[in-house]
Structure formats: C-alpha cells, structure tokens
## 1
Amino acid sequence: MFAKDLVKHAREFAGYLKNRQYEQTPAGVVFPQAHAFAHGMYSHRVNGGEWVHDPNLLPSEGLTYLLSLLGAGTKLTPWYIAPYAGAISPGANWTAATFPATASEITSGTEGYTNATRPTWTAGTAAADTINNNSSPVTFTIITATTLLMNGVGMVSESAKGATTGKLLSATRFGAQRSFATGDLFDVKYAVSLTST
C-alpha cells in the first residue's frame, strides 16, 4: 500500500527534499506532511561473533536517488560497502564525492582490508517495505601490521576504493569504535525500509 502511495506522490517527496521539509533523526528521515519514514540499519560482527546494530543516516544524495527511481531515474547496481576510520558522524550533506576524504575511507591493501575493491552488497528480494542483504553479508578480510581502527561504513555505487564518483546511499558511525587484528573477518549487513507513520 505505502509503495503505491510513494509512486503516486513521487513529485511531492522530491519537493519535500528540495524545500528541506523533512527531519533527520538518529533513527531515519521523517516526512511529516506525508506521514512517511525512511530508515536503515547496519549490522556488523567480527569473526562470526554476535551482531551489533547501528542506525544509519540517509543523506540528501541517497534520498534523492531513491526518489528518482520513482520517476525517470536510472537504477544503479550493484552497491558497495566502504569502511571508514574518521571519528565523525555522517551528515545530510555527505556525498560520494566527499565521502572518502571527509570520513577518512579505509583504502589500503596493507593497513586496511585485502579485498581488491569495496565489497559488493548483494540484496535479496524486497518484502514488507524492506530490502536487505541478510542472506549474503559483506565480508572484509582485515590486514594490518598492528591494529586497524574503524568507526563506520557507507554504501556507495562505485567499486573502486576511494572513488569519488557515483552516489552515497547511506552511512553510519558505529556506536563504539571497532578494533581489528590481521586476519579478522568483519561481516556487514544493511537493511533499508520505507514505511508509513
């Protein structure tokens, strides 16, 4: 029901974004006039341990991209998860162009992770107003001579480490900084939802 309403009122949502008629909250983005809520959640674990959950921020670039799909926008696929080291919380003005420098994206293959590119986020089928990669978590193989510190991750549309093109869909700062040793396996899941309020 809500998805049909969103398609029907796509121009209105675009107007809400353009006119800043929305509220960024720690849990997601509220569109008061539309009674709608866009939110996402990252889940992460180390070496098969317990999952830790952190809400994300959907920046303006990500929200605009999602709404463009209801019009003539081009679908971008696949998406990639990019880790960052900066002790900084995502901002609504973050973009794919600014993410690597602003967040201090981890790009090294010797003091970072062994994956040649940003790992691919592979989504399942959307259901119940949500889409996620729960059945196929992203995995980073950590490499470091001492300790690698990570403060968050983002979801971007370009695979190259440090790329400044494409779109930034979302980002999160972990509730607590992660510390890794070489050989650690770091798994990441992401779910995004659009629901009525």
## 2
Amino acid sequence: MMRISVVVPFYNEEEGIPALQERLLKLAKQLSPKYELECVLVDDGSQDGSERVAQQVFAGTPGLVYARHAQNRGLGAAMRTGFNEATGDIICAIDSDCTYDPLEIPRLLNVLETTGADIATASPYHPQGGVENVIGWRLFLSRGASWMYRIVCSSKLYTYTSMMRAYRRAVVKGVPFYSDGFAGVTEILLRASQQGYRVVEVPMVLHSRVAGVSKMKVMHSMTMHLQLMWQALTWRFVGIAPYTNPKEVGRGL
C-alpha cells in the first residue's frame, strides 16, 4: 500500500488544532484502503498550549509523527523538519489553519497519478480556482507576488505561494531550499522547476482561517520574496547548480 505523508507545520495554533485533527481523521478514512496516511506534525516552538492540545487530540492516532523545535524558526525551517521526518512515497504539505481543506488532498494525488507530474500545487488564482473571505491586504500581497513571479520565472504558473502541495518523494529529498520563512514555500517550487521537475496546478478555493491569527511578518516576507524573485530571474538566464551554497543566496530568503 502506498504511504502518503501529510506534513503540517504549526506555531501557536492552540485554537485550531482540534479542527485540524478532525479533518485529518476524515482524510485517513477517505484515502483508505488505497493509501496509508502518515501525519507529520511540526511544532515550530509554540509558546501557547499548542503542544498540550496536539498531544491530547492526536493521542492514539495511527501513523502520527510529532516533531518540535525548541524555539520558533520559521515556516521554511519547519517544512524541512517535516520533510526529513516523512517516510511516504508522496509527501503533502498543508496549512495547519485549514485555509485549504485537507480533504482536497485526494485531488492532488489524482493529478500526480494521471499526469505523471512531480508536484501538484493548489492554485486559487487559477481561472477555475477561487478565494473566499480572505482579508483584502493578504490577498493583495499573495496574488501580487504570484503575478510578479509569473513575470520573472520561466515556469508560467498562476499561483506560486500556496502551501498546499503534493510532492513525489524524489523532489523533497533531492531539492534543497534554504529559506527559513514563508518564502520557503515558493523557493522549493522554483528550485524544483529549475531542476526539471514538472509542476501541475490544481484549481482550488482558498478560505479565510476560522481560528487563530496569521503569523506572517509582512514586511520581512515581502523583502524575502523580492530577493527570491531576483534569484529566480538570475536562475532563468544564468542557471543554477542543484546544490547552491546557502550563503550565496542568502540564508534568510
């Protein structure tokens, strides 16, 4: 039976963890018996009751892997930890706040299977995708960033900033990315595309979070994305080695 790992980084998400557990439990039933589900939770140094709540509501959950950072290191760092812990043939990454419904993961898996692609990414900015009740400034930043990446990158996608994706194992094990922040979500996509991995978009609806608050540091994230766009433009015309020294691209991307 093929194993599907779902990597879920979280930071101070005490209020939303019970809803996450409920959706992942439903996902496990939805995937069975074709797939075996492994849930990889990565607590990125939460300071609230997230660790306690997660241990309680996920107690006894089959296939659970729990990793914790001693201090907050950022979304990109948490993704790397989760990818290192995951043992699945296909590794999915999702937002802990369920702004993309985890029950849409079978659609990503189906696209990988039917197209032979290496990465399937949720795409709310695809003409057939959508956005519901997302705060205006967040939507402006995310959509604007994707529009700019589409201009500078050789891979012409509608959405570059979506967290929710399904990766074949070869991608997460063979594509290094160095950003510790939110830009890591985009960096791994760009590097994989540059290395020849095929990316397919799956139209999907992005919802507003129903619990907790966003942890994004807006100005910092904007700066990191601008730096990454410059790198992407360089990669497009100059090329990039698969294992670039992180000091050459900036550890904080």
